[in-house]
Amino acid sequence: VQLQASGGGLVQPGGSLRLSCAASGFGFGNYKMSWVRQAPGKAPEWVSTIDSDVDTYYSDSVKGRFTISTDDAKRTLYLQMDSLKPEDTAIYYCAAKPRYYRDFPPRSYDYWGQGTLVTVSS
């Protein structure tokens, strides 16, 4: 099982980034996919979950600015991040949990990626 996150970097406030997470080694279509972030010195924070093309969930802190999506053919999860703020600075992790668990946000995950660093600063 592998979740490979990429796309992080340094961006100015108000800018945009698109994160990707390439999945392999498990049934991607049978899992709900999430993004979780951890800022320096803080606890992990759930950001967003996608259960299907129409079932998407967002934390209040990113709602209206971030968009989660998947490309099932490519087995890839995305997070489009717009109107970025300094408080969005964190390591962003992708995570997976079987769809038959109906908890939103997920209380735990079966698989985690290695994380990609997003820094929002002028």
Describe the structure in your own words.
This protein has 122 residues and is mostly beta strands. It has strands spanning 2-6, 9-11, 17-24, 31-38, 45-50, 56-58, 66-71, 76-81, 90-98, 111-112, 116-120. Strands 2, 4, 5, 6, 9, 10 and 11 form a 7-stranded mixed sheet that branches. Strand 5 and strand 6 form a beta hairpin. 34% of the residues are buried.
Write the layout of secondary structure elements.
Blueprint: E1 2-6, E2 9-11, E3 17-24, E4 31-38, E5 45-50, E6 56-58, E7 66-71, E8 76-81, E9 90-98, E10 111-112, E11 116-120
Parallel strand pairs: 2-11
Antiparallel strand pairs: 1-3, 3-8, 4-5, 4-9, 5-6, 7-8, 9-10, 9-11
Overall, the morphology is globular
Secondary-structure class: mainly beta
SSE run: EEEEEEEEEEE
* Helix amount: under 10%
Low-pLDDT parts are none
Strand content: over 45%
Nearest-integer average pLDDT? 95
Biggest sheet features: 7 strands, mixed
Q: Using DSSP, what is the number of strands?
A: 11
User: Rg, please?
Assistant: 13 Å
Give the helix tally. 0
What would you say about this model in short?
The protein contains no helices and 11 strands.
Sum up the structure in keywords:
122 residues, mainly beta, 7-stranded mixed sheet, 4-stranded antiparallel sheet, globular
